[in-house]
Amino acid sequence: MAEHHVSAKTYLIIWGWLAALMLVGVALSERHILPFSRGVVILTIVILSTIKAALVVLYYMHLKLDRRTLVFIALTPFVLIALAVGLLYSSKLVHL
After folding, report:
1. How far is CA 49 from CA 36, 67, 93, in A?
2. What is the pTM of this model?
3. What is the pLDDT of residue 17?
4. Burial code of 8-45, b = ≥16 C-beta within 10 A, e = fewer?
């Protein structure tokens, strides 16, 4: 595999995005600042955290440059978590 170098500018841009997403999450967690329901706040913070984790994995852990097989291995826990959450909430959707 040929070596690919990511510039320092790219790292600084990703760092800026990570900092901005963290600040949005902190602002959302302050209940008295924004008038959102607790469920919306939690869901938004989880989505922001997932985006931040993806940025870290892709750029700082360099999975963006690795083989697709390794990427699928890294994404497997996310699939398992999604299935577990789906099973958890499926009982609330189907009333037996």
Report:
1. 18, 24, 26
2. 0.63
3. 95
4. eeeeeebeeebeebeeebeebeeeeeeeeeeeebeebb
